[in-house]
Design goal:
Helix 3 (60-69) packs antiparallel against helix 5 and helix 6 runs antiparallel to helix 7. This protein folds into 5 domains: 2-45, no CATH class; 50-129, Ubiquitin-like (UB roll) (Roll); 135-215, Ubiquitin-like (UB roll) (Roll), CATH 3.10.20.310; 221-292, membrane protein fhac (Ubiquitin-like (UB roll)), CATH 3.10.20; 296-600, Porin. A hairpin with a 4-residue loop joins strand 7 and strand 8. It has 9 helices and 27 strands. It is 16% helix and 47% strand. The radius of gyration is 38 Å and the shape is extended. A 16-stranded antiparallel β-sheet has the order 12-13-14-15-16-17-18-19-20-21-22-23-24-25-26-27, with no helix packed on it. The two termini are 67 Å apart.
Length: 604
Amino acid sequence: MYVSIQGLSYGAFFISLFAALPCRRAVLYVLISGLILLPGAVKVACAAPVVEVSVSGVEGAVRENVLASLGIERQKNSPNLTERLIRSLHEKAPDEISSALQPFGYYKPSIKSGLIQQDGTWLAGYVIKPGEPVRVDAVHLIISGAGSEEARLKKIQGNFPLKKGDALEHERYEKAKRDLLEAATEQGYLDAHFIAHKVTVHLEQYFATIYLHLDTGPLYRFGDVTFKQDVLKTELLGRFVPFKKGDPYRVSKLMDLQNVLYGSDYFSQVEVRPRRDMAEGLDIPVEVDLVSKKRQKYTIGLGYGTDTGIRTVLGWENRRVNRSGHRFSTDLRLSQIQKNFSSRYIIPMRNPATDHLDFTAGLFHEDTNIYKSETRLVGAGYIHMRGTWQETFYINVQKEKYDVGGETDDARLILPGVSWTRIKANDRIFTTHGSRIALDLKGAHTAVGSSASFIQARLNGKFIRRPWDTGRIILRGDFGFTDVVKLSGLPASQRFFAGGDQSVRGYGYKTLGPVNKQGDVTGGKHLIVGSVEYEQRIYGKWGAAVFYDAGNALNKLSDPLKQGAGIGVRWRSPVGPVRVDFAWALSEKTGRRWRIHLNMGPDL
C-alpha cells in the first residue's frame, strides 16, 4: 500500500492514521524522514508478496502450455498482488490446467493443487496426471469442386497426419487444415474454403471424430502480363515469364518471375502483382513494376594469394547496350604472375535468364617460375541450361607465344569445345552441403589451321558435406587427359601443371610435372590431383583444418604422385572463408619442404 505526505501541515493527520496501517515500522521511518526533511511529496510502498509456482507430471510443450495458461504464473510478479488475489488465482488454476491439456488430447486429467505460505513466500504447487489422451476414431475428409482430383491435394488427403487410433492433437489438426487450404490456393483454386470443419469429442466413449469438407472452387488461370518500364523491349521481358496466358495460376510461378527478373541484373526493384480485381472471368492479369539499375557498372577488387601474390581487378560493364538487353563488359586483372585484359559481349537468347551468346576477346600474359606465355584470343560461345547442367558450346581462336622448359615457340590454335558445369549448394559463399562438377572437352587439328593436333578432357569437382553442426568434410579432385603425339608442339596454356593453393599444397604454384634432361618442369599430358580435408569450427567464426593432398602432372598415368599434408586456420569472412594453410611437401627429401598457402573466396 502507499502513504503520501503532501506537506508538513498534514503531519497530525498521518499520525492519527498510523495505528491502522500495516508495515508500521517502515511507515514510521518514512513519516519521520518526511516530516523532518521533506517539504515535498514522498511515497512508501510495502513489498508485494513473493509467489513461486511449480508444475509436475507433464513435460515439454504440454508443460509450457500449462504454464502459459496459468493466471497465477502470469501475475506472480505483479506489484498489485495481494493475498486475496493469490487465493483467487489459485482456485482458478485447475480449470486453466484442464483447458491447457485439451489441445494435446487430454480431457480427463487428475489435478492435485496446494497453496501454502512459508517464510513470507507463497508456494503454489500443481501435480498433474494427464491420463490417456482421446483417440481419433474416424477422419472424414472430403474434397469437392474443380480441384477434387488435383494430385497435390489428393496426396495431402492420403497423408492426413491424424489417423484412426492417433492421439487427438489439435495443433496437428489445425496445421493440416492450413496446409490443405494453402495447397489449394497455391494450385490456383483461389476461392477454396471449408464448407465444414469440426472435431467432435465424445467424452463418455472417449474418442473423437474429425470432419473436414474442402470446396476448392474453380481453377483460376494466368491472363496477360504487362510490364511497367521503359528501358527494354517488351518482347525480351516476355521471355523471362515462366508461364503462358491460360496456364493454371500458381503462386510459385509469380515468385519465380520475380526472382528471375531480380537475377537478370537489369533491375533494382521488381514488384509482381496479380490483379484479381481486374480478372476477366477466371483469367487473372499480372502487372510487373520495374525500376532499372544504372546502366554503367564499375568494379574494383583487391586480393592476395600465395599463388598469385597481390591481385587487382578493375572492371566496367554496360548493363544495357540497347533495348534488346545486350551487355558489354571489360576488365583488367593484374597480379605478380598474370596480366590479363579481356572483353565480353553478351546477347540474350530464347530464355534470357539462362541462354546467351558470348563473344570474347583478350590478351593474357602469364609468367611463373616454370613458364612464360603470351596469348591473344577471340572466341564465341553459346551457353544454355540442360536440366541442372550449364552447357557451353564454344570455339576459340588463339595465338600463343610461350617459353617452357627452355623451349620457345609460337602456336596457333582453333579450339572448338563443349563444357558442362553443375553447382548445387545450400550457400555458395559458405557451403555446408553442396558440390561443383565441371567437365570440359576440346581439341584442335592441323587440318583446320592449328599448329598442333590434340584432344583434351578435364574433369574437376568439389564436394562438401557436414557430418555434424561444427564440422565440414571437403573432397576435391582434378583429372585431365590429353591425346597428343608430341608434347613439344603443345603450347604452355594447354599443358597440365600441378602444385599450389588449389592443387597439391606444400609445393609452389604449377611447379609439379614432368621434367626435361636439365631438370626443368615442362608440363604434362595428364593430370591427377585429389584432396581430403576436415574443417572444425573452434570458436565463433574461427576454425581449424587438417588436410592431405596428392597429385601430379604426368606423361604416363603410372608416374608417381607427389604428396602434401598440413594444418590450417579458417576465418569466415563476409566474402567467403579466409584460409591460411601450413603444408608440408611429403615427397621432397631436400630443399624447401614446407610452405604457407593463403587464399580467400567462396567455397563453390
